[in-house]
Amino acid sequence: MAEKVRVRFAPSPTGxxxxxxxxxxxxxxxxxxxxxxxFLLRVEDTDLERSTPEAIQTLLDCMAWLGLxxxxxxxxxxxxxxxxxxxxxxxxxxxxxxxxxxGGQGECVIFRMPKEGVIEYDDLVKGHLTKQAKDTQDFVxxxxxxxxxxxxxxxxxxxxxxxxxxxxxxxxxxxTFKHIQxxxxxxxxxxxxxxxxxxxNHAGKPxxxxxxxxxxxxxxxxxxxxxxxxxxxxxxxxxPGDDREIMTREEMVEAFDFAxxxxxxxxFDLKKLTWMNGEYIACQPKAEFERELTARLxxxxxxxxxxxxxLDELVGHIQPRTKTYADLPGNCRCFFxxxxxxxxxxxxxxxxxxxxxxxxxxxxEHFERAPEFVAAALEADIKAFCQARGDKGMxxxxxxxxxxxxxxxxxxxxFEMAELLGRExxxxxxxxAAARLRDGSL
Length: 442
Ligand code: GLU
What we know:
Layout: E1 6-9, H1 19-35, E2 38-43, H2 53-65, E3 75-76, H3 81-93, E4 97-101, E5 107-111, E6 118-123, E7 127-132, E8 139-142, H4 150-160, E9 165-169, H5 173-185, E10 192-196, E11 199-200, H6 216-221, H7 226-234, H8 249-255, E12 266-267, H9 270-283, H10 286-299, H11 311-318, H12 328-336, H13 344-351, H14 356-369, H15 375-389, H16 395-406, H17 414-421, H18 423-439
Parallel strand pairs: 1-2, 2-3, 9-10, 11-12
Antiparallel strand pairs: 4-5, 5-8, 6-7
This protein binds glutamic acid.
């Protein structure tokens, strides 16, 4: 029987979880689930200043939010310290390592790299990688203060956890030549490696916080769904090989394959992520969307039960056009708050024109007289009005009316908006806008 696949996510918690890091977790998780193997979590918490309990909690929260459930107990690297040091002693005893007092700083333990030949491995993503032994150097595995170095701890923990495949960012490609020698010296099988391509910005440089949001928590706050972030990050370096982009978790698990992983850098594209989020939001159960909407509106100080029971209709209009939850208070403000802001460029273009105050008043009269204040009837009435004026289309009327009612040119259809606002509020807003245009306050 083939050996059971056992992979691990081995982050060093620092307080915020970078998308590059969590992408490694996602690839590990997908591979483990695809192979029916195990996905382990090892917290590399040896940097005691940065790996605080809060930083570790943030990491665990991010994983839970994204549905990255780990198998078995979480391993904390600091718990293995005695083992790391004991093995370093053994390596010295067997001649694989030696002690040296470097620059009078105290004695450290140094691992011997081969002096000739070549170190090589077949990376599942990058192909065959080699390094001439003469181009390598011996390296420290225990510092003079007695603390084990990353390379030793990382390799030993992988042996302890029985890891078969190491899937991580390609910033570790060089370390791997060292690690392979450690595995060999320790008489342990060398795991298979998959180094994932770097995530880059539009200029091809490593994606960092200078490029925009780079941490999972920020995307969460901005209203991206965990399903979106998972799906999007899974496609940064992997593609199922057909044109599918929106995939369920099950579909991704089913299709995941290192043969379809790319070794070239993966460009982070916020526009695409945002598009994808819109697709996910549009498919959400209405009740869930409504809950989120209400929570966001309340947090923004808008009334808790807006629209006097018309929330349902608003949801129907807003949900399909929402890209992120963070946009909701801004996009919906005009439905709940008479102090909604006016978009300067829309006011300039659509309201600061000859005859607009009169036009708004005329439409206010139409709205006042409308037998039924429902979208279809309002639209038919305004259409007839436009035709009677000799207008080619409805734009000359509809655009100024929309800006007067909502402050901006974007948002849901004008007549649906008027219906939701109701007759009284719509008429009042049109008249107020007309008056303010006349006295110059708008
Ligand atoms: N803690 C290291 C990191 O986060 C480990 C990487 C690994 O071996 O997966 O970069």
